Amino acid sequence: MTFSGLETLRLDSHQLTALPPLSEHLHALFADDNALHEFPASVLQLPRLERLHLRGNNLRVIPDAIGELRTLRDLRVGRNGLTSVPDSIGSLEQLMMLDLSENELATISGRIARLVNLRILDLGHNAFASLPDLDALTQLDVLYIHDNRLTALPALPRRITYLNVSENALADLPPAIGDLPLLRELDASKNQLTTLPDSLRHLASLRELRLSGNHFLEVPTVITSLPSLTHLDLRRNRLLTIPESIADLPKLQKLDLRWNKLREEPRALAILEERGCAVMR
After folding, report:
1. Residue-wise pLDDT tens digits, 28-46
2. Is the pTM value of this prediction over 0.90?
3. Which of 163, 167, 171, 188 is the most exposed place for a label (fewest CB within 10 A)?
4. CA–CA dist 256, 238 (Å, integer)
């Protein structure tokens, strides 16, 4: 069987151990959830390829030649068994989406910062203890670095709107977190946080803040300085009290306080509920 002339080919979920012959005209190849053990060499000969999805296979290695696919805009190789990524991935300067999640990666080259058109980067569910600075990724909107072993965050680009750093080993967030003026969602759940930096007050666009599963003994007062906050998740901390100033959050729609040990019911919660905010406790 040949696929000459095709521009898009979908081969998901067929238990393939090898790919059929591919058309040199191919722009998009979707081969998720198969049984590929080696990166298909034929893919590296596709001069027009823009989208390549190989999630959920059994790949262990990405060849250096991946850097020759200069037309790639969307590369998804999550949920494999990758233990390394070649430096040549930094040559894919047209990439807008890169998914390396759910692998076994512990390091990645600083050349990833050359991906100047990247909009979405998913490095979640790996084994990173540290990451290179990412502030050169000036077009980056969405960053997933959750479920790793990070004790500190890399430098981040100012454009970010969504940041997931949950399930790491962060004892604090850096003051530079306040230098992300477009940030709308921040998930820092399941870390070791006890405080938040005062610079958080500069996040005027922040709408959703998730802090469940940390070690807060009290609600950081800086939270009450977030004028756009609509959702606040404080589940599974060690909170004993809630400040009355929590009712000063003008747009709060949902406050989750479950699995804390509040000593008393503050009046602020009733005020929020009267205003239409869903309070879960």
Report:
1. 999 999 999 999 999 999 9
2. yes
3. 171
4. 13
